[in-house]
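User: Please predict the structure of the protein below. I'd like the answer in structure-token form so I can feed it into my own downstream comparison script.

Assistant: Understood. Taking the following sequence of 85 residues as input:
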Amino acid sequence: MANGQSIIRQKTKEAIVKIPLSAFRYLSRYPLEKKIIVEISIDDVARVNNAETLDEIINEARLDYALGDYSTHKTSKGLIAALRA
């Protein structure tokens, strides 16, 4: 594309995954950034979601990767800027 711009594709479908609070396990926190790090139990996520929902998300991610429809970032600031765009 001209001027270093790239095409951004809009997703027409959204998938929703429920995560029960009991699935979270606290690991650590960063008070200055107001962030915490947690683990999420896959078994608990699977328990409260339809299998087809998780399968759809995984399959779409695999397809996007195979088609090269993804981006990489060297810094967290770059990732955050891309997510906010």
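That's the full token string. The chain is about 40% helix and 15% strand.
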